[in-house]
Amino acid sequence: MITRVITWLQGERVGEDSFGNVYYQERSKPTGRRRKRWVIYAKDDEASNVPPSWHAWLHHTTDVLPGASEADAPSWHKEHQPNLTGTAGAYRPPGHTLEGGKRDAATGDYEPWRP
After folding, report:
1. From CA 84, how far away is CA 86, in angstroms rounded?
2. 3-state DSSP call for residue 72?
3. How many whole angstroms separate alpha carbon 17 and alpha carbon 11?
4. How far is CA 5 from the centre of its chain?
5. How confident is the prediction along the chain (115 residues), in pLDDT tens digits per residue?
6. Residue 49: count of CB within 10 angstroms of its CB
């Protein structure tokens, strides 16, 4: 609640990402330090919901606002995906207890090391 009041009083909206997160910075330029930057999350307050380009902007790695540069990204770049650990979309290897608990039979090519 306090963050929303501070955002309303002192924040300047600078952009929004594909997840609906909204990014802000201080309206006034302070003397002797950089402008503060922050994000208001659309859903869960989870840092992995911030795409890499916005993460770089938030942490003052770059001053270029993301958006136009994302359209120029190489074709091999994958779309950002948040960390799914602990959710229904998390990766579970074959044989995991929540995936049936039955592993494939061993192939017989394993040889233990013996000193």
Report:
1. 6
2. coil
3. 17
4. 24
5. 788 888 888 899 999 988 899 999 999 888 899 999 999 999 888 888 899 889 999 999 999 888 755 566 677 878 888 888 888 888 888 888 887 778 777 777 778 889 9
6. 20
Overall size of the chain counted in residues:
115
Nearest residue to 48 via CA among 84, 5, 17: 84
Nearest to 40 by CA among 5, 67, 72: 5
Quickly list H helices, 1-115.
2-10, 52-58, 68-71
- In DSSP notation, 41-66 reads -SSS--GGGS-HHHHHHHTTS--SPS
